[in-house]
Give the backbone structure.
Amino acid sequence: MKLILKKLHCHFYRYSVGFFFILLWPFLYYFSRKPGRYRNMNRVRQLLGYFSSYPSGIFYRYHIEEPIDWSKTYIICPNHTSNLDPTSISLLMKNNFCFMGKEELLNTFAIGLFFRTIDIPVNRESKMSSFRAFKKAAERLANGTSVVIFPEGKIPDNYPPKLHEFKNGPFRLAIELKIPIIPVTSPDTWKVMWDTGKEKGSKPGICNIFVHKPIETAHLTIDDADALHDKVHAIIKQKFEQG
């Protein structure tokens, strides 16, 4: 019975996303037509996240280690256990931003529009696709758009989830462009909805989001990429395992 209720809740959440996406579609479509309007498209994306989550009883509580200067550009590196993670990051952001994510998202109902316009799709099995995606990310960063990259590359298959190894791309990119990295830990979002929610369902609850202080990279060289990778992984792992 408990699983049935959780699956019903997940369906309610998914239909809520669909309903508000359709309601906001004219604004999303208009703002998606030109890159100069992407900032406003992100604002509508934030409204979509707000309207679809809160009627479902899903809330996000942010714990920010130190004030963030949102006039700067960042690479945001969160762990990934739930389809709620992009929403939690969207609601966090105070400057223009985009996500890098798997190319399969191009064909999804609500998210596909974003990945055909503002966001960056990538086939992580293809070196050429990864090269093109990171080149596009570099262009976005150079133009003042923060880029959200989930360094695990996917939601891990194991349940309860564990923090997996990180890909090196975000850290090399941060050093090459001298862009600070903000690690973000979501230790309990999976308890509200793990992965897509299809298997375990979802439930109302509060997702705690720990936003760690930015890590500057201006003084680093490409030889420091592994050390930066290990530092960000250790920060997120410590908070994630604390629960």
Notes: The chain has a mean pLDDT of 96. Residues 2-242 form a domain with the Glycerol-3-phosphate (1)-acyltransferase fold (CATH 3.40.1130). The CA atoms of residues 74 and 146 lie 5 Å apart.
